[in-house]
Amino acid sequence: MTKHIETIRKTRSVLLEQLTGLNSEQLNQIPQGCNNNIIWNLGHMIVVQQGVCYKRAGLPTLISDDFRERFRSGSKPEGVVSDDTIAYVKEELFNTLDQLEMDYSHQIFGHYTTWSSRQGTEITSIDDALAFLIFHEELHYFTIMTISKLVKSLPIEKRV
Predict the structure, then answer these.
(1) Which domains does the chain have, with CATH numbers?
(2) Is the pLDDT of residue 80 over 90?
């Protein structure tokens, strides 16, 4: 299943390439009609990956409880995310994936708790979780691309 992890890595790499040139104001901007911003979506991708892979397997996550609370499903952006936190999120998109790949190769995900996604898919193993993550990441990829187009088109005075 490292092929799934490589697919996620590729999606995240292409996504960050697409965001090159956006400043912290744009990454924090919540366009009219949207519920969140680019940086929230990026942080959320990390939180979901950690939850469906580690937490569902009864393992400790690689992120703090504060980070999880800030970017969990059902949360929304609260205040401006600092440049330091933006850099941290971008790094963790790949650090957590590198660790996941290593942990997968060491087969630490043996005891996995079955759960159902909002779409009704039953997830019974780490392999199912990785397949689900591809779907989840692509949803957020397209959300981020939509928000990116909106924040790029806003006049400077409307951006914050």
Answers:
(1) 2-158 (1.20.120.450)
(2) yes
